[in-house]
């Protein structure tokens, strides 16, 4: 699957959250910083990157409950009438996701919370945009108060983000475990013996346990609930 991320933070270099996201993404997924002012050459490059991708993302911070103006300008410039008249059929079915950072605990984004609004409500315009041009809208990835989080939460965010980018939509438990096993195998190759062999053994035992779970699941009676 070919993916691309468009960065819409107007001060990317000074944002710890967005530097984290930039570094955390797989090397196979290009990150294209949106430039302003918009010139024809850049707009054409953005359009070509979207057409070549199976899945593309907009990454930006929420400022006062909305994206920076750079993001709105990007959508307006890239998805011009001329572009849509020529390529609307090519866009249909592509996956589109939003990656955002917020400076407030995520639990506050709910009815009755301090913000008294949900993330889904704030991002509704992007869902509507996706539906209007035939894109498949993905659940957003939200990074909340990154700089204030302890190291183990930041590590968890890294894993969640990598899985968000690399795994299929609505990935199952088995998919996530297979991804983790593969990552462990890759990490093992970075070490020398005997640690390398120990890590590979852990990965092999983990994979065997997942196979056993799959066998058990296959023999369970089918139900109507999920």
Give the helix/strand layout.
Blueprint: E1 3-7, H1 16-24, E2 31-33, H2 40-52, E3 55-61, H3 69-78, H4 81-91, E4 95-102, H5 119-122, H6 124-133, E5 136-137, E6 141-144, H7 151-166, H8 173-188, H9 195-219
Parallel strand pairs: 1-2, 1-3, 3-4, 4-5, 4-6
Helix pairs in contact: 8-9
What does this structure look like?
With 226 residues, this protein is an alpha/beta fold. Helix content is 50%, strand content 13%. The protein has 2 domains: 3-169, Flavodoxin domain (Rossmann fold, 3-Layer(aba) Sandwich), CATH 3.40.50.360; 172-225. Strands 1, 2, 3, 4, 5 and 6 form a 6-stranded parallel β-sheet that branches. The chain is globular, with a radius of gyration of 20 Å. The mean pLDDT is 92. Residues 40-157 form the Flavodoxin-like fold domain. Keywords: Oxidoreductase. One of its GO terms (molecular function) is FMN binding. This is NADPH dehydrogenase.
């Amino acid at each position: 699957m070919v993916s691309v991320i468009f960065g819409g933070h107007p001060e990317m270099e000074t944002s710890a959250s967005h530097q984290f996201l930039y570094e955390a993404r797989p090397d196979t997924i290009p990150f294209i910083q949106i430039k302003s002012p918009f010139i024809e050459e850049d707009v054409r490059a953005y359009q070509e990157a979207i057409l070549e991708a199976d899945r593309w993302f907009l990454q930006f911070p929420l400022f006062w409950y909305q994206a920076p103006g750079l993001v709105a300008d990007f959508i307006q410039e890239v998805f011009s009438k001329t572009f849509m008249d020529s390529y609307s059929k090519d866009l249909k079915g592509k996956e589109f996701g939003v990656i955002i950072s917020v400076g407030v605990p995520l639990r506050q984004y709910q009815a009755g919370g301090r913000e008294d609004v949900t993330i889904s409500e704030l991002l509704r315009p992007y869902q509507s945009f996706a539906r209007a041009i035939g894109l498949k809208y993905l659940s957003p990835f939200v990074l909340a108060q990154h700089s204030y989080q302890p190291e183990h939460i930041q590590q968890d965010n890294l894993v969640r983000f990598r899985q968000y980018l690399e795994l299929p939509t609505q990935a199952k438990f088995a998919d996530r475990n297979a991804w983790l096993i593969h990552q462990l195998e890759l990490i093992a190759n970075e070490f020398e013996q005997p640690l390398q062999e120990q890590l590979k053994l852990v990965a092999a035992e983990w994979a065997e346990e997942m196979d056993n779970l799959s066998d058990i699941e296959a023999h369970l009676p089918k139900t109507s609930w999920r």
